[in-house]
Design brief:
Number of strands: 9
Low-confidence stretches: 1-16, 21-30
Number of helices: 5
Mean pLDDT: 85
Structural class: alpha+beta
Strand order of the largest sheet: 1-2-3-4
Distance between the termini: 20 Å
Radius of gyration: 17 Å
Length: 219
Amino acid sequence: MFRSKSFNINRPSISGHLIRSKSFSEIFPISFNIRHSIVIKEANPSEVCSNMKEIIRNTMNNDWIDFNSAPCLNDEQRRWKARYDDALEIFNEVCSNSEIHILLSRPDKKTFFYIAYYMGHPIGVLQLSMYYKLPKVAFLATHCGIQGCGKLLIEYAVNKSQQLGHNGKLYLKSLDNAQHVYKSMGFINAGEYLELNPAERTDKWIWNSVKNCYKFKFF
């Protein structure tokens, strides 16, 4: 799984694609309500394919790694490029998966896709698979310049698990450099995987009995 960490975003009036030179503190204020600024939608394979291509071609364009021509990269630039490369790889993988689902031309009732949008532009994706003992987060990626979006996607996956009778439980296989993020959400080690049972992590998750959903406490 890929997690990205860089800066918070805000300011709903900016138009056009997310451009690195226009995406730091002078444009996006510190105050940022992720629930109000980012929209998550469940998507069909055609929508996923279209949105992943937009991310790959536009939202994550080369402006985000414009230091490639530098003779050598410093540590921060190397970390940034690694986040960019990891995210781009997963966006391409999910795009390929969605194209396979389109070619099958029949509904797959055990695979679900969620797309995150900021100002109408896709900035993240989560693929949830129901072919295992628990719902599995098969793929998760967010734009390299967005912080917090992945946690909101996980929250949606938890509630899909709840709706499907799995009590909000999830599991996933994480990249080493992302494990600390998942553990901060209550995931625990389970062999080579990480598992989450939100009912057992009341320090991290709140059950809303009125709306019948879980909410992650820390955004």
